[in-house]
Structure formats: structure tokens, C-alpha cells
Automatic annotation (TrEMBL), chains A, B:
Leader sequence residues: 1-18
Role according to the record: Catalyzes the removal of dipeptides from the N-terminus of oligopeptides.
Family (UniProt): Belongs to the peptidase S46 family.
Enzyme Commission number: 3.4.14.-
InterPro entries linked to this entry: Pep_S46, Peptidase_S1_PA, Peptidase_S1_PA_chymotrypsin
Originating species: Anaeromyxobacter oryzae
Keyword Protease: yes
Protein name listed in UniProt: Dipeptidyl-peptidase
SUPFAM superfamilies: Trypsin-like serine proteases
Superkingdom, taxonomy of origin: Bacteria
Lineage, broadest ranks: Bacteria, Pseudomonadati, Myxococcota, Myxococcia, Myxococcales
Length: 701, 701
């Protein structure tokens, strides 16, 4: 369990020889790749790779793999959709899914696919708008300019524009995407093989997972044309071969100051782990109620367990004295450099102190901010219906304001994605909603105290269970039409609504907004402004040959197929089908699905299954293509090894590994286990693979 | 949530004015009490207090409150017994319990009461036995001498003797107790009022809990005679009055080195909190299965939630930079003092380094040691039946060895207490056992990895759920006679047993023992030896006017009834019945039981309910009497305030408070709500209160 780390520093002087970096496409170090691997990515090559890459807006990466809109990603990236399309009668998570014809492809209620069309540097505009501003004024000016830039760019609902904060405020990029909201499920294997080894093997290697799913983007009811796509490698990758990964790493914290890292290590991280651990236990207990309860909560349990394991790895890195010591040295080196020049010292050194003070301020508001506001966002702590209600309530109020003055979730540019989720037809399980709402209310009371005014307002004289019961039973928000009516009706409809879930969201909104404002003005704005200064200092010291922390925007990394050494053990880079059959015990999570057991004698057991590379990735890169210098797919990223989890804070080429499914495993399984020849043909560019030409595909069955 | 701490240091020079200290009875600072409060406890007074104090061997404190063996403690200290005596038909936890006559008093299967008869300083013998030894030799020599001392002392099964390590090895005491194993339940109120406010109000004040239960010790089938007991105060306590608390604080860490505190803060504590959080979630989920599942798991849930809240408070203290900074200063001051004398520096300073190295060693074995060995002990991580099986397996092997060579759990002196628990007739719920066993197996696999040899041995090709299912269903260990047969049959019977739970315990035993040995020899022995040296240095620097860290042995603390200031808010020292009625919402955990609702018009609403004092206590003190200088009961300790949780590491008189039930609340409730006049009379020393004279008591109903 102990990490043996020789951390390579982010600072440019040390970077030259390592396969480190999640590079923006507009600053890719082609010459560095040429020097180490003898191949120089050209601008045209980079453009092709960028346009063939895709993002699942909910938090994953993907790639276009045919000219007819076929998208490859992980099973775990589509898990929620597969669960949403299932019923108590037909469980596609358990049994897998294969659309034999184009007509059988089914729409995923909440998946949006993005393709990055262009990057524009808008640093100057943001800096001009925020010049001289601090705190609340900084936030307001930034939000207004961001909204304006996005609005100007997003001329059409088929576009998605986002101002991205890079280098924590050192640079701002305007990212313009093509947006696909009609995304259909084409193929998914059984969960048992997609996630073979389950939580015990998660982040581990050797590994034997077929963590793949295929989706297709549609446009006007027909498969979209995607001329920019990756081709399939006939041969696959071999050890030592140069590999690229293009995808959307979600978040890294490599450029944080020591004060910010200490906050994470000592406060946020252990508390997040406690919350996740309790949620995990609670959902595990809930699953005892029966198979249907288990079915509807498996995606959430997976998400929670995955978060626990990932966060634990990050926490272990932060509390490793050697690892943390390196981070301290790195900051000291930068400060020493700054200190040499009195003008720079005056300009940049106070930024470190300002950020440290913002951490202290954050500690004072961390629990209420977390529990009243932040967890109600993406983590949907009170359940899906509460999340919907909160957005309906806020959306009513916010959309009445000028764009630039709204909370960022309701900027004009953000609405299409939000509306897709708000009006999703995905089924909602009431028992599970009650569990989640009661959990949130219980924790708020526990962590803020029964006598906190916001808690008293929320709970009144009722218990969390009681409230969850009558609010979930009484709400109409399961009905998409009811949501739409409240959304369209705006603030007046919200004020007039007697829906108990809407009432609960109304009740908590003022307190949640108030604490969010404190956070944005007194913590976030201070961090952004001062991190901008530190980024400037870093550019001055080390030049532009660095990469920004991950921001769930498209990045390209390079590396090679390579195992690693753990103590006195050499880990080989490839596994095979044979190894998977050997590891199987017949018991969950080491139980192979029936299709695999049946196929044992027909598959080539020597087929490479999963493999590892030195590419620098992080959570969010799941579903990224691994490709060679000819832009041919050789694998599909689905994980990092356990030692890559410290990658949030720094990259160590000796042990940090990307874990991918081998392209040969995909073809072997699709052909021989699933008979999914329609997909295989399409991947190989054969005409029969295209949708709408169902006869051939069906015939191939 | 933030602590505002002006930590008073443990080092003697700073101690003089604060009500700090959990003093051993053989080193009580009477002159200090006299100076501050004008009362000098005499040796006779101290002996009387000591003999009137009691310990529940399972982890609580208590007191003798009549000459006929009546024992007062908390409801939460007897909760498990009350649950064990309940059935699906009759739930005494929910409804309360009152034995109207002596004949109605029912035996608690697992409670042992101890009365401290004598303390002997055995430091010289232990030091002589361990002189010059290190590591494994130190452990062996220490264990052998400890076993010999205890064996010599424990001349009779009615005695219990324990060698206690004080000052972490600076001093050793031989504690001789009278042991009562026939302990019967006399009275318990409803859980709803014993724990009014539940987890949200736990460790909070103002507070409104009647956290009391009465037990009685029996001897030869009759109530034991206890001439040394506390009398009842007719008037109760008033603000500012001198109060004493005599009880058994479980553990403090005030004398740990900074290296040890850092280990706790950065590694053990956050991981313990994660484990507890997950268990809590899991049990909460399990309770959804139905009322019976809820009933059988409530005591465990209480224990877990209480641990979460207590540990979180401790963790918050450790990660408070101001608090921790004080601890660092304290150690620096001691080291500076040592450094002045070269001879002392040579003798003592290396001890700090040795302890720091032991922490690094501990980090290497912490996860396997925790999960394979430590959690299988008192926390019974795999459930009660697995705990029993492990002791049967080990007991068979260990009892065949000479006393001094056994694992400490099986020393001759330790067997009576162990046997009482092993052969307890308490019911076992199979569903809950399965949940707990599967949880343990799952976590072992998760935290050690599926490929760890011990894990492979334990799980084979089965899943945790599967194993839990067939092992719990298949075991005979629910049957006390079956346990006794295996225990009496020793190693041969164990080897021959086909019981699946015994088989599982056998399977894990070698790995668990091996990692325990590493821990004992390479961590514990090093800590004990070097802490002994540091204690010596501390004595040399500050004299004997300090107290040792808590060790679940009898301590006396002094203080006064006093509220505190939190920010700009003054917290008054007393609450009243009226306040309790006001706080009630009718919903769990703020629902008063029917008896209290009915009695509202009959009770005196101005009756003091709970109150706070400056006495220095910690977990384990639950159930301690609060008494005045005339040895009269004025209250019953049941909690500390939230700011007392940092008390594990240091005492801050400004905010650290003991929380107790007022003696007047006890009398008012017993008389007017429960009609328990038999107990009231006995407390007041009236003859009709004594058991066996049932007519009068029943008549009073």
C-alpha cells in the first residue's frame, strides 16, 4: 500500500524527459515528442485527432470511430443510461445490450456528446473586465464577461461554448463544441465483464475488463456524419510503442499552492472520504431490500465506491511525507526564484499569503457551504428529484435576470445541457429517492447542528425520514411535463406551486445561495485572482512549456506501452483472455457472464486483453481512445493503476500508468462472443457496418 | 464548529490553577483542591470514594448507591443488556424496564461490575524483569511478569487483578478489584428519554436526557452487601459548588509524543472515521429491512454513531493548527529542558526518535494489523459469533502454554471475564451476524487487496456474502453448550471441529497472530520502553505532581458546576424539565415517551434536568457519580460537551465540560413518572427500598 515515489516536478526544467502532461491542443510539445520518440505531430495531425475526440458532457471521454457517428466509450460511462433503459423485467446492465439494426438503437435520456471545434484565447478580455476588482466585484465582472463571451459564441443550440479557466486563472480559453443531444445506445457488454473484478480490482493491474460501450450520435433523427474519426489499427499496439491519449481529464491539483494542498489533506479530503464511506454503506444496506432496489442503485454504488477508492489513493499521496515534501520543495523553488527580483517579489509573493488566508476563510464556511450548497449540485446529494426541484426554483428566479448577472448554472450558454437533464425521461425510483433525501437531511442536521437556523427552517418539527417520505410521495416532479410547466412558468409558477419537493427547495434556497455567495466572493475569487498572479510568475520563470491543471477540457498526452516495477516485481504491460479465465471464480465480482463461459473454446485465449501505458491521465479520461502515430485506435482507456491516483498532485513516470482495453480484445469479443459483426464491420470501415443497412448485419447474426 | 482553544498544558508548571487531571487515587492532589476550593480530601475520604465507585468491565463507570448492592450507571452503559433481555414481543429498550420487586430483577448476560479494593505500585518488579530487553524480548519479559503478578494477586475468582501501565510505561500499578458477575437489571427508562435528542444532541448542551439505569450486584444469589456506597444529596448541586467525579476514563493521549500524535492525525484517525462512517451507513441501511432488524441493531448503531461523533471531535482538535501547535510547544519545552543536561540528553532524547521510527514501522503494517487482528478484538468487526470462534480457537492453543507465555487475553487472570462473555446467553441475530461478517470480509479484501495471501486463504473462490451466509447458517456457536464443549475440549476439540465458523477462525488465525507479533515487538514494545524513559524525564523535570493518561482505571477529578462562554453566548449550567418539554417535537429523536407526555402536568417543570461541570473526564467516565465534599450524589455523568472531545489530547478549562443528569431530575422522574418508589426509597436509605421486601414497593405502585 505504501507509495514509493520519486516525484517528477511540474516545473518545466524537470519535465523534459518524462511522458508527463495533459497538454492543451493549442500548446502541444511536438518537438519534445519528436526528441524522445522520433515522431512529430503536425498541426494537421493534431486537428484530425482533436476532431475525432469526443466528450460525454456528464463526465467522460470518447472518440468517433466511424463516419456514421459511432462513438466508443467505456461501459461505466454509459452505465447510468443502460440502467435508465432497463426495467425490472429487462436488465441490460446485467445482460448487456446489442442493437442488431440501426432501428434498435435506443436514445439515452441524459447523454450529451461534444466535439471540440475551436479554441480561442480570451485571456485579454477576461483580464480587462476584471482588472482591479476584488472579491464580489471580481466575481461579478468575471461572470458577466464569461456569459457575454459564451453568448456571442453560441450562435446556435447545436453549439456549446465554454470559457475555461486555465492555469487556475493564468489563461482563459473559449472552447467551442458541436453538441449532440440525440445519442443512442448501440452496444454494451454485461456489467460482469465490463467491470470484472469489481471494486477489489478497480485501479488495479493486471486486469481483465471489457469496459466498453458504443453509442451513436444522431442529427435530425439520422446518424450524424462524422468524417473526422479514428481508424482501427489492424495490428494493435506492442510494448514500447508510442501511444497518444486524447481526452478530457476532469481535474488535477498540480498547481495548487501548499496552503491549498494542506487544506485538502487535512480538512476536505478526510471529510469527503467519510461522507462517501457512509453513503457507500447506506446504499449497500439499501440493496439488501431486494433485487429491484439493487438494480436501481447499482450505478450510484459504483460511482460511490469508485470515488472512495480514487479519493483514498489521492489522500494516501497527500499524506505521504516524501510526496508532500516534494510539493513543498517545488513551491519553495518558485518562491526563491520570484524573490530574486524585488519587483516580482512585491507583485507575486503576497498572492501566496492571500490564498492561504482564503483557505482559513474556507474552513469557517466549509461545512455549511458543502452541505447546503455544493453537494446539491453535481453529486445530487438529496437525490435526483431534489436536484431537479432546486434547479426549477433557482432557474425561475435566475432566468429573469440579465444573462451576465445570473448564477453561472443559468447562463444562456449553460441552459441546453441543463434542460436536457431536467427534462430527462429517465425513471426515478421513489424508495431510493427517499433514502437519499433523508440521508441529506440527516447529515445537514448532524454537521450543522440541530439548532442551526437553516436546519431548523428545513426540518421544522419533522424528522428527516418523515420529510423524505411525504415529500417524495407527494411530488409531481417524476412527471416530465410537470417539470416543464414549472420551468416555463418561471418564478411565478414556482411561487404558486404547492408541490412539496418544490416547497423544500424553496425553503433551503436562500441559505444555500447566501453561503455560495460567501464562498464565491471570499474564497473562489481570491484563489482565482491570486492563482492568476502565480501563473504569471510561473510563466516568467519557466516559460510557456508547461500545461495547465486538468479542467475537463480536451487534452492530449503522449507515452508508450510499458509495464512497471513494484518492489522487486515486474508488472508486464499486457494481459490475455487466458488470464481472465484463470482469475474467474464464478462469484461476483469475479464471475464471468454466461456468454464468456460459453465462448471459452471459440475465442483465441492468447488475445491481448488489457494493457498499460505511461500516458498521463486522470479521472474524466475514462473512455479516451489510445491511438498510434497514424491516428489508429489501439486501445480504450478505462482506468489508471493505483499509483496513478497521486497523479492528481504530480506525475511519476516510474509507476503512474494508464490502463486500457486492447483493440484486439474488442474485436475478438465483439466478433466471437457477441456476434456483433455490424459493429466490427463498421469499425473496420466496411460498408455493411453502417446503420440503416440492417439486412446485412442481421444476416451476419 | 471551529474550536477556540487556549490549551492548558499538561506539564505541571501550568497545571496549578486549572481543574485539570484524571488523578489516580494514590496520587490525588488534595492540597491543590484545598487551595482552590477550601476543602481537603483526607485519606479516609478518598478510601470511601474509591470503594463506593464501580466499573462496568465492558467499558463504563458506575457507583454503589445503597448498602444492598444497588448500582447506578447510564442507560447507554446497560443498553446492550436491555436489548439482550428484549424480544420481538417485548422491547425494553423502547418501553423501559422496572423490576417492581427484587424477584423481578433480571440477570444481564454480559455485565461484570468491579470495585477497586487496592492499588500496589509494581514498577520495580516490571522494570527489573524487562531491564535491558528490547523488542520481542521486552514483550515476552513484560507479559510473563505481568501474568505472574496478576496470578499471585488473584487468589480467588471473586477477585480481578490487573497490571496497569501508567504514564505509558513510567509506572506500573497492580489493581485489585472485587468482581461481581451476577449483575441484574433493576430499572431503565425508555430509550427515547435516556437518549433524547439522539445523535444530533449527543455531546451537545443544553441537554435534556435521563440517561440512567440501575443495576444490582448479587452474591450467592442474593443482593450483595455494599456498606461503602454514596449517599444521596437532599439538595442537589448549585452553580459554583465543588464537585468530584470518580470513574474510569478509558483512554487519553495527552502524553503522546508529537510523532505519535501525527500518526493519529494523519493516518489512524481519518481511516478509523471512514470505517465507522461506512459501518454506520450499512447498519442504517440494514435497519430498513424491518422493525426486528432495527431492534437488534440499535445498540450497535448507537455505539457506532457515538464513536463517529467522538472521534470527529478528537480529529477536529488534532487538525486545529493552534491546538496542535500547543502540543508541539509542550514537547519542545520538555526537550529543551532535557537538553540542558548532557547526561539526560543522552539518556532521553533518543527515546523520541525511537518512537518516531516505531510510527513509520506501524504505517507499514497498519492496514493488515488493523483488519486481520485488532478489529477482531473489542470492536468485534466480524460479528459476535466470529469473535467467539476466534477466542475458542486461540484459547485452545494458548491455555495449553504456561501462563506467562500466553497471549495476554488468555492469562489466567483474564479468563473469568472472557468466559463470561464467551458463554453469554445473549441472543444472536443471524441476519445481523451475516451483515457484519460479510462487511469484515469485504473490507479485508478491499484494504489488503484481492491478491494478498491472507485474503486468498480466507476467501478462496467464494464471495464475502456467500461465506457469511453459509458460515453463519452452519455454525453451532449460537448454542452456549456447544461453545463450552469446544472451550473445555481445548486444541484437540478445535482441530476436530467441523463447525464452519470455527474453520473460518482457524483459517485466519496464523496470519492474524503473525501480524500481531510484529506489532507487539516492533511497535508496542518500542513505544512502551521509550515512553517509560520519557516519563522518567518528565518526572525529573516536573516532579510527581502530574497524572497519567487515562487507562480505564479508577481516577478522581475535581471541578465545579459552571457554564461556559461560546463566542458571545453564555451557556448556563443547568437545564430544566420545562426546557425538555419545549425542545420536544414528537418526532424521533426529539419525541418524548408517552410516560413523560402523560406526566407533564404532574411533574415540577422547574426541576433541574441536566447540568455541566468543569471536571476533567473522557469516554469511559459514562455512568460516573458526581458527588459533593460530603460524598453525596448530586449527579450522574453521561457525556462531555463537544469541546471536551479535544480532551483526549489536552484539557481546556474554559470550554471543556462534563455533562450530567441532576440528582433532583432522577428523583423527580423515578417518583412522579415511573412510580419507582422502591428505588427512591432505597436511594434515600429508607428500609422499604431494599429488595426482598417487595410488598411495600408494590403497594406504592
Amino acid at each position: 500500500m505504501k507509495r514509493l515515489i520519486t516525484l517528477l516536478l511540474v516545473a518545466a526544467p524537470f519535465l523534459a524527459t518524462a511522458d508527463e502532461g495533459m497538454w492543451t491542443y493549442d500548446n502541444f510539445p511536438s518537438s519534445r515528442v519528436a526528441k524522445k520518440y522520433g515522431f512529430t505531430p503536425t498541426p494537421a495531425w493534431l486537428e484530425q485527432a482533436r476532431l475525432a475526440s469526443a466528450r460525454l458532457a456528464g463526465g467522460c471521454s470518447a472518440s468517433f470511430v466511424s463516419e456514421d457517428g459511432l462513438v466508443m466509450t467505456n461501459h461505466h460511462c454509459a452505465h447510468e443510461c443502460i440502467e435508465q433503459l432497463s426495467t425490472a423485467q429487462k436488465d441490460f446492465v446485467k445482460d448487456g445490450f446489442y442493437a442488431k439494426t440501426g432501428a434498435d438503437e435506443v436514445k439515452c435520456p441524459e447523454i450529451e456528446v461534444n466535439q471540440l471545434l475551436a479554441i480561442t484565447d480570451v485571456t485579454a478580455r477576461i483580464q480587462k473586465a476584471t482588472a482591479g476588482a476584488e472579491g464580489a466585484r471580481f466575481t461579478a465582472a468575471f461572470q458577466a464577461e464569461k456569459a457575454a463571451l459564451e453568448r456571442e459564441c453560441q450562435t446556435d443550440a447545436s453549439l456549446r461554448c465554454e470559457v475555461v479557466t486555465l492555469y487556475h486563472g493564468g489563461e482563459y480559453g473559449l472552447y467551442r463544441y458541436r453538441r449532440f443531444q440525440d445519442v443512442r445506445l448501440v452496444f454494451a457488454p454485461e456489467f460482469a465483464i465490463a467491470f470484472f473484478g469489481g471494486d477489489p480490482d478497480n485501479f488495479m493491474f493486471p486486469r481483465y475488463d471489457l469496459d466498453v460501450s458504443f453509442l451513436r450520435v444522431y442529427d435530425g433523427g439520422k446518424p450524424a456524419k462524422t468524417p473526422n474519426h479514428f481508424r482501427w489499427s489492424p495490428a494493435g499496439a506492442k510494448a514500447g510503442e508510442l501511444t497518444f491519449v486524447s481526452g478530457h481529464p476532469g481535474r488535477t491539483d498540480r498547481l495548487l499552492t501548499i496552503a491549498q494542498l494542506k487544506e485538502l489533506r487535512d480538512f476536505s479530503m478526510p471529510d469527503i472520504l467519510q461522507r462517501l464511506a457512509e453513503e457507500r454503506g447506506l446504499i449497500s444496506g439499501f440493496q439488501l431490500l431486494g433485487p429491484e432496489q439493487k438494480r436501481v442503485s447499482t450505478a450510484r454504488l459504483f460511482y460511490t465506491e469508485n470515488s472512495v477508492k480514487a479519493r483514498r489513493g489521492m489522500f494516501d499521496a497527500l499524506r505521504d511525507p516524501a510526496f508532500f515534501g516534494q510539493k513543498v520543495k517545488e513551491e519553495e523553488a518558485l518562491r526563491a526564484r520570484i524573490s530574486k527580483d524585488p519587483a516580482k517579489a512585491r507583485r507575486y509573493l503576497p498572492a501566496f499569503d492571500a490564498i492561504a488566508k482564503a483557505q482559513a476563510r474556507y474552513e469557517q464556511i466549509r461545512r455549511p457551504y458543502t452541505w447546503l450548497e455544493a453537494l446539491g449540485g453535481r453529486p445530487r446529494i438529496g437525490g435526483d428529484l431534489f436536484w431537479i426541484a432546486r434547479h426549477l426554483v433557482r432557474g425561475g428566479e435566475e432566468r429573469a435576470k440579465p444573462d451576465g448577472e445570473r448564477l453561472s448554472d443559468y447562463h444562456q450558454s449553460a441552459l441546453p445541457a441543463l434542460e436536457q437533464e431536467l427534462f430527462s425521461a429517465a425513471p426515478v425510483n421513489l424508495d431510493f429517492e427517499k433514502l437519499r433525501l433523508a440521508f441529506w437531511l440527516t447529515k445537514v442536521r448532524e454537521l450543522l447542528g440541530a439548532d442551526h437556523p437553516a436546519v431548523k427552517k428545513l426540518l421544522g418539527k419533522e424528522s428527516p425520514d418523515e420529510i423524505a417520505q411525504h415529500v417524495v410521495d407527494g411530488t409531481q416532479l417524476r412527471d416530465v411535463a410537470a417539470r416543464r410547466k414549472l420551468w416555463d412558468g418561471g418564478a411565478a409558477a414556482i411561487a404558486a406551486s404547492a408541490d412539496p419537493m418544490v416547497a423544500l427547495a424553496r425553503l433551503s434556497d436562500a441559505d444555500a445561495r447566501a453561503i455560495r455567495k460567501v464562498y464565491e466572493d471570499e474564497v473562489e475569487a481570491v484563489e482565482k485572482k491570486n492563482q492568476g498572479l502565480i501563473a504569471e510568475a510561473r510563466f516568467a520563470a519557466y516559460g510557456r512549456s508547461t500545461y495547465p491543471d486538468a479542467t475537463f477540457t480536451l487534452r492530449l498526452s503522449y507515452g508508450q506501452v510499458k509495464g512497471w516495477r513494484e518492489g522487486d516485481r515486474e508488472i508486464a504491460p499486457f494481459t490475455t483472455f487466458a488470464g481472465g479465465y484463470e482469475r474467474a471464480t464464478g462469484r461476483d465480482p469475479f464471475a464471468l457472464p454466461p456468454s464468456w463461459i460459453t465462448a471459452r473454446d471459440h475465442v483465441e485465449l492468447a488475445t491481448p486483453f488489457d494493457f498499460v501505458t505511461t500516458n498521463d491521465i486522470i479521472g474524466g479520461n475514462s473512455g479516451s481512445p489510445v491511438f498510434d502515430k497514424d491516428l489508429q485506435i489501439v486501445g480504450l482507456v478505462f482506468d489508471g493503476n493505483i499509483l496513478s491516483l497521486g497523479g492528481d498532485y504530480g506525475f511519476d513516470e516510474a509507476v503512474n500508468r494508464t490502463v486500457a482495453v486492447d483493440s484486439r480484445a474488442l474485436i475478438e469479443a465483439l466478433s466471437k462472443i457477441y456476434g456483433a459483426t455490424r459493429i466490427v464491420d463498421e469499425l473496420r470501415g466496411a460498408p455493411s457496418g453502417a446503420p440503416g443497412r440492417a439486412a446485412a448485419a442481421t444476416g451476419a447474426q
